[in-house]
Amino acid sequence: MTGVREPGAVSATRGRRQVPLPRLADPAAPLLVVEDLAVRFSLPSGSVKAVDGVSFRLDDGEALGIAGESGCGKTTTALSLVRLLPANGRIRSGSVKLFGIDLVPKTEKQLARYRWREISIVFQGAMNALNPVRRVGDQIAEPIEVRLGRSRDASRKRAAELLDLVGIPGQRASAYPHELSGGMRQRAMIAMALACDPAIVIGDEPTTALDVMVQAQILQLLERLRRELGLSLILITHDLSVIAETCDRVMVMYAGKVAEEGPVTRVFTAPRHPYTQKLLSSFPNIHADRRTLDVIPGQPPDLRNPPPGCRFAARCPFVMDVCREVVPPEVTFGDGVRVACHLYPGRDAAGPPPRVVGATRTCDAASSTDPAP
Predict the structure, then answer these.
(1) Does a structural domain hold residue 155?
(2) Which of 212, 242, 359, 361 could tie 366 with a disulfide, CB 3.0–4.6 Å?
């Protein structure tokens, strides 16, 4: 990890409101507000509480990174925004308000108005997401034709323009997915996500399985498009360095819940939640001395029967009796960081966050101190 950007370096991007806005939109409302979202998956062995009480906000032109280990609920949270869940998954409670419009109670027909037109997704693994027997240009043109009602010729012309926008010559629109390299396929997926000029693009680990150079090119492309088009971005990734370089805010999830959320600069340089501290200390830092990377002992809990208190309690170096019995309250600090941990029992909590013994943070500004909220 090379460090985090200076405050405002990413936030210089300014979002834009879609014209026209959805008919029921409130022009004064935030772009996206998710409150107390809960998602369940039904299995023969029980109900999996994959997402449990997740809340966050995304403003115009902002990039939010969602991090956490496999199975923590990152992708499920993102797919729930437009209800693209597997057949055994359902939103049990909560709200997803886009321009002030709650999408959760919408029918499938009503929700079609918002999918791809307002929120689109760059899926993980372009080779699996693209139809192998259809030409790339036709796949990009399809949402333009279906969602925006354009003619086939106009849609294909726009598809070629979008390919040019993401760095692929327009004449390659006639190619099949297997005729493109991995990086070009991912660029084509980004072009498809931009087809209907959405306000929000979700990137579900868009650089997975790409080599380092191609990863950097894709991330630079996303940042350029966000700046030029005024997009808001939700980036799901295991790579903390990606979030450090490209996002304004980061939300760290563990076992279906939000552990810590706030500005990237604050969370990465002065992490408060023990899980965030351990997660950062387990990531290599090219600027630090050589050392054995930290590990997080144990395993995440079984979400069919999660523990009654803090879900990280069994692996936490600061665990207290209350952690095993009571769900920790969320505490919001003056620097905009939100933490769910019994180490901070109330809004008047002050002082620097406790540190994991032997842990070394992976950001350049590790010497900064934590201001009182």
Answers:
(1) no
(2) 361
Would you give the distance in Å from CA 354 to the centre of its chain?
A: 27
Tell me, what CATH number does 369's domain have? 3.40.50.300
Q: pLDDT tens digits, residue range 167-196?
A: 999 999 999 999 999 899 999 999 999 999
Q: Which residues contact 179 (CB under 8 A, 6 or more apart)?
A: none
Is 41 in contact with 89 (CB distance < 8 Å)?
A: yes
Q: Dihedral through CA 240, CA 63, CA 228, CA 137, nearest 10?
A: 80
128 within domain boundaries: no
Query: Is the residue at 223 inside a domain?
Result: yes
- Residue 106: inside a domain, yes or no? yes
pLDDT at residue 238, as a whole number = 86
The separation between CA 237 and the C-alpha centre of its own chain, rounded to angstroms, equals 7
* Number of domains the chain contains: 1
Q: Are 190 and 225 in contact (CB under 8 A)?
A: yes
**Amino acid identity at 363:** C
d(C-alpha 28, C-alpha 76), whole Å: 28
Predicted model pTM: 0.87
Task: Give the per-residue pLDDT at 306.
Answer: 95
Instruction: pLDDT band for 142, please (50, 70, 90 cuts).
Output: very high
- Residue that the structure tokens 């086939």 belong to: 152
Range of the domain at 350: 1-118+198-373
Instruction: Print the SS3 string covering the chain.
Output: CCCCCCCCCCCCCCCCCCCCCCCCCCCCCCCEEEEEEEEEEEECCEEEEEEEEEEEEECCCCEEEEECCCCCCHHHHHHHCCCCCCCCEEEEEEEEEECCEECCCCCHHHHCCCECCCEEEECCCHHHHCCCCCCHHHHHHHHHHHHHCCCHHHHHHHHHHHHHHCCCCHHHHHCCHHHCCHHHHHHHHHHHHCCCCCCEEEEECCCCCCCHHHHHHHHHHHHHHHHHHCCEEEEECCCHHHHHHHCCEEEEEECCEEEEEEEHHHHHHCCCCHHHHHHHHCCCCCCCCCCCCCCCCCCCCCCCCCCCCCCCHHHCCCCCHHHHHCCCCEEECCCCCEEECCCCCCCCCCCCCCCCCCCCCCCCCCCCCCCCC
